[in-house]
């Protein structure tokens, strides 16, 4: 049985036991504003609560999985807003909560293509399995924006990224799906146009197993991942880098489509 809901910020489609969640803000390259984070949270909760659904795939509509955080909304807030919210995220829209507040601990596959930037790198790496289209380009943009990449470094280390995780976090350079596969960050690289097909093949392999057995492993994995990332965020929170001059300059330069001025370390 197939069920679908389209025309929303996150389209929801269930085909038997497999749910596909499609980020649907293609005109903005699926940039995550507070509303899109909230919509994905709602869609994941619906998947978690739906008895027939056993596994979900997250993908993006258009040219990219996601260009990351919506800079104009989440990174150009006033100082007063940053202080009140405790960071760039809006109230109740912290992306780190998306996959770690489950009840039934069902597995989630990320199926990215095009670009995976900034905030969306975290969402992809926090998924249980990852199938990326060949040539997909990843970038931890937090490094160049002055926010720090500690959480992303930690997730990459958790997935086995080793020395590559250090380079990706420190340099903030683009890296490809092929590099990510070689560094053990993702599970599979799919030929052009076949990343969803391959993700669904992997999903069918997973759902052949007793669901409670699979969920037990998901729960264990996410518990350890969440503990590690919460420790990192607790350690870095007092820095409040979102209040620094360098962060403000980097965010303004991005929206004004210019090179940032020389960073001052303050």
Automatic annotation (TrEMBL):
<protein>
    <submittedName>
        <fullName>Enoyl-CoA hydratase/isomerase family protein</fullName>
    </submittedName>
</protein>
<dbReference type="InterPro" id="IPR001753">
    <property type="entry name" value="Enoyl-CoA_hydra/iso"/>
</dbReference>
<dbReference type="Pfam" id="PF00378">
    <property type="entry name" value="ECH_1"/>
</dbReference>
<comment type="similarity">
    <text>Belongs to the enoyl-CoA hydratase/isomerase family.</text>
</comment>
């Amino acid at each position: 049985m197939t069920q679908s809901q389209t025309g929303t910020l996150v389209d929801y489609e269930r085909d038997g036991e497999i749910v596909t969640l499609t980020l649907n803000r293609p005109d903005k390259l699926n940039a995550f504003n507070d509303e899109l984070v909230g919509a994905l949270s709602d869609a994941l909760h619906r998947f978690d609560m739906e008895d027939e659904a056993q596994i979900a795939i997250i993908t993006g509509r258009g040219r990219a999985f996601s260009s990351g955080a919506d800079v104009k909304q989440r990174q150009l807030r006033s100082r007063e807003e940053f202080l009140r919210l405790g960071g760039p995220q809006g109230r109740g829209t912290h992306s780190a909560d998306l996959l770690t507040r489950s009840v039934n601990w069902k597995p989630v596959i990320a199926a990215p293509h095009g670009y995976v930037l900034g905030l969306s790198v975290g969402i992809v790496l926090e998924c249980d399995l990852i199938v990326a289209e060949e040539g997909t380009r990843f970038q931890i943009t937090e490094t160049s924006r002055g926010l720090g990449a500690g959480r992303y470094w930690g997730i990459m280390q958790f997935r086995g990224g080793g020395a590559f995780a250090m380079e990706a976090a420190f340099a903030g350079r683009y890296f490809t799906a092929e590099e990510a596969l070689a560094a053990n960050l993702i599970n599979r690289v799919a030929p052009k146009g076949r990343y969803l097909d391959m993700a669904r093949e992997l999903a069918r392999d997973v759902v052949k197993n007793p669901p409670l057995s699979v969920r037990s492993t998901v729960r264990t994995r996410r518990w350890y991942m969440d503990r590690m990332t919460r420790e990192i965020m607790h350690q870095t929170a007092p820095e409040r880098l979102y209040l620094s001059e360098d962060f403000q300059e980097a965010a303004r330069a991005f929206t004004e489509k210019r090179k940032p001025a020389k960073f001052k370390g303050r």
